Amino acid sequence: MFYREAGDFKTSYTDDSQTFPIKFDRYRYYVVLIAAFAVIPFLINDYWVNAVLLPFLIYSIAAIGLNILVGYCGQVSLGTGGFMAVGAFAVYKLMTAFPEISIFIHVILAGGITAGVGVLFGLPSLRIKGFYLAVATLAAQFFLVWLFNRVPWFYNYSASGQISAPERSFLGVPITGAQTAPWAAYLFCLVFCVACALIARNLTRGMAGRKWMAIRDMDIAAEIIGVNPLKAKLSAFGVSSFFVGISGALFFAVYLGAVEVGEAFGINKSFLVLFMVIIGGLGSIFGSFAGAAFLVLLPVLLKNTLVGGLGWPTDLAAHLEFMIVGAMIIVFLIAEPHGLAQLWRIAKEKLRLWPFPH
Amino acid sequence: MVPEDTITEDGRKIGGVVMEMKNITLRFGGVVAIKDISFDIRQGEIRAIIGPNGAGKSSMLNVISGFYHPQEGEVWYQGKRRPPMKPFEVAQQGIARTFQNIALFEGMTVLDNVMTGRFRQMKAGLFAQAIWKGSAEAEEMKNREAVEKIIDFLEIQHIRKTPVGRLPYGLKKRVELARALAAEPSILLLDEPMAGMNVEEKEDMSRFILDVNDEFGTTIALIEHDMGVVMDLSDRVVVMDYGRKIGDGTPDEVRTNQDVIDAYLGVAHD
Ligand SMILES: Nc1ncnc2c1ncn2[C@@H]1O[C@H](COP(=O)(O)OP(=O)(O)OP(=O)(O)O)[C@@H](O)[C@H]1O
Ligand SMILES: [Mg+2]
Asked: Which residue among A129, A347, B12, B187 has its CA within the 20 to 30 Å range from the CA of A69?
């Protein structure tokens, strides 16, 4: 009943372009933030952090990044895994080369380096579109994984070819390595996740976002209002890769601690993040979170209920997971390209008018 | 020779030449879409381009807005010869346009569509936009105000937050005009702004075009098939047929021109 716009009049354009124009949404958002920063850290244990929270936060960042490229700018990419690898290897090289500099800075720099690589691999988008662009980014995916496998400089000539994160702390608290407390890893990733979401939100509600969406909806019309397609597309590749790079850096340094590139950042990763974006909702920041949450929670849920509760064999549960995800992708692609975010919006729309829909 | 400033009957001031097309020829393979055409557009006037289907009118607008590059001829803008330009560069010079088949951003709201028209006015960099608070927000609000004025002016307040894809045709045309106006263009190119509209919608659109010209002094070049509308709106008319120019002058001069009458009555070409 109290979920209303009525009586909540906008008296300025600033109010009108807020992220959460309805008061109730705004309060809920503050509640979520306070809970995330001040309550959850005290409640969590190792299992929750590693099985749910860290992957959720880190994939959310990647999904936001990919959503900017695919959902907002309309440029399909299958190279997310490769770009996450760039972030991971960048942060690894930085951590080992400059141990005196804060890991916080390293993660940001890793994002910056990935942005540069993303712009480079975005160049073909100026000539090719759609399916052909997807294939070009697929090539980037394989090339990057191959590169990190083949050039020993990237993994500091380690015998196994793996990279593993040295112990680093931030503000005196260990963030990477064996000493890391679950809450510390969680908070560190949370800060990046919230910052990335805010930046993405700001960019997409302003002129940058409009430029990207203009290119997505009709590139000819975008040109006629003065959008330089070269700059718009490359900026989307850059910003998108920045986020994806940060997520790759966190995935390696904070979450896994040690990775083998082909295993952690292979083509499967590209598809996983793409599915998050499709299921969550193309062109929606909230959808990126929803998609990440869904695909992180689904296997955990299936495993706990089917395997743990009903005693199904593990592989059967895994097959069921594939089938559910596959079916959802098809349904969403055909029926609701704006994904879970749109379903949520429709539900709110109904709620706003309830109980008097007319 | 540059004509002197003149005052029209209804008291609008028409200045010197802002845009001049000199001996433009445009070919697509064997098809000659435009054949050695010259004409000019003067500051503050409403210049119509008319002609039967396939005459080359849209091609001419596409030459002006940089989509097509003529094989021969020169485009002069604000006293300078214009080098070959990409469409977005032309837009950045202050030439805005609408399309014969609406070219809006279907996935965005009306408000966002019109806001896209303000690219030239909005300079905040990516970094400032990422921070938002401060210069980017101030700029957004300033431009939002300007855009709201245009939205009021074209009477589309009620659909502000509606995604463009859901609008009926007539309103889409109006939103497209709003987006072009948001750019505060020095020249506004309209390709059949009233095509497919009913009488009432046409009257509204005519009024908007006249008001734009009158209130903002915007120079307008428009293509239109409805002769009644053309005669009412325009100060001068270029008539094209089969890629050639067959008439140029005031509506009255054009109406009495024998070549024009022949073209419209379908006299056989030799
Ligand atoms: N991109 C193109 N490629 C090939 N031929 C073209 C192209 N654009 C236009 N033409 C040809 O140029 C000629 C003029 O076309 P144009 O669209 O300029 O005519 P128009 O006067 O605008 O006609 P209408 O009133 O039907 O809009 C036509 O014969 C058309 O087929
Ligand atoms: Mg035409």
From this structure: A347
